[in-house]
Design goal:
Blueprint: H1 3-20, H2 24-34, H3 43-74, H4 81-93, H5 98-101
Helix pairs in contact: 1-3, 1-4, 2-3, 3-4
Amino acid sequence: MDRNFIVFTVVGISILNGLFSPFLAVAVPIAAVLMPEVFPRSVGWVLFFSSLLVASGTLLISGVPAALYERLVDRGRGGNVTVVIWLVGAALLALPALRNLG
């Protein structure tokens, strides 16, 4: 598979996790506090920022095992194994969101 396709798939899985994750209930109060003052504190904006927070967290946390593998094992050879590890990490983090999709 193409490396760019896998990266876009990871981003898509992160976005879906941000939209349908059960952890949005945890992210809503955090997003309400962290929101910039430019935006109104309406329900729509708070849900948008909490969804963005969960999606960004999924993207970052799922990349940690891939970065460790690349640093410790791969040594910068540039194989596809790193992005596949990133994809698997994002898919595992998005598993709780699958219940809310249906």
